[in-house]
Inverse folding.
C-alpha cells in the first residue's frame, strides 16, 4: 500500500510539516509525564482510526517501558484498573477533545475539573495543545492513507 501523497516531497507541505513536527517536539518537553503523552496520543489515534499513529505511539510507549497490558487496555481505559487518576483524567480530556462533533458542547466542565485536579495550568495548556496536535497529525495521515507497520522507534526524533 502506498500513501496518496508524499508531504515531504512537496515544497510547501514540506516546509509546513517541518514547523508542525517542531511543535510536536516542543510539546514532548512539557512537564506532562511522557507516559501520559503516549497514552493520549495512542487513544486519540485509536478513536480517529489512524493506523500509522497507532503503530508509532504503541512502539514509542513500549520502548519507553510501557507495559503491554496498559497499551492493550488504553481503548477500554474506563474499565481498566491499571491507569492512575491523572492518566484517566488526561484520557477523558483527550477523548472529549477528540470527539467534539459527538459531544454537544465539546469538553464537559466535569472532565475539565477532573483534569484540573491533577494538572496545573501549564500542563493543562500542554495537554490541550497535544490533543489538537494529535488530531491534526491523524487527519494528515488518514487523508493521505499513510501505511502503518514499518515505524521504527525514534524515526522522527
Amino acid at each position: 500500500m502506498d500513501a496518496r501523497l508524499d508531504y515531504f516531497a512537496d515544497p510547501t507541505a514540506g516546509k509546513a510539516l517541518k514547523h508542525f513536527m517542531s511543535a510536536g517536539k516542543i510539546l514532548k518537553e512539557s512537564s506532562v509525564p511522557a507516559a501520559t503523552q503516549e497514552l493520549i496520543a495512542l487513544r486519540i489515534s485509536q478513536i480517529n482510526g489512524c493506523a500509522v499513529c497507532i503503530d508509532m505511539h504503541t512502539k514509542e510507549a513500549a520502548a519507553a517501558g510501557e507495559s503491554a497490558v496498559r497499551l492493550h487496555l488504553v481503548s477500554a481505559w474506563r474499565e481498566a484498573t491499571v491507569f492512575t487518576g491523572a492518566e484517566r483524567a488526561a484520557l477523558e480530556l483527550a477523548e472529549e477533545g477528540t470527539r467534539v462533533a459527538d459531544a454537544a458542547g465539546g469538553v464537559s466542565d466535569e472532565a475539565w475539573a477532573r483534569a484540573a485536579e491533577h494538572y496545573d495550568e501549564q500542563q493543562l495548556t500542554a495537554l490541550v495543545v497535544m490533543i489538537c496536535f494529535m488530531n491534526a497529525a491523524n487527519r494528515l495521515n488518514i487523508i493521505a492513507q499513510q501505511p502503518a507497520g514499518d515505524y521504527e522507534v525514534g524515526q522522527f526524533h
Summary: Helices lie at 11-28, 34-48, 51-63, 68-73, 85-98, 109-118, 121-144.
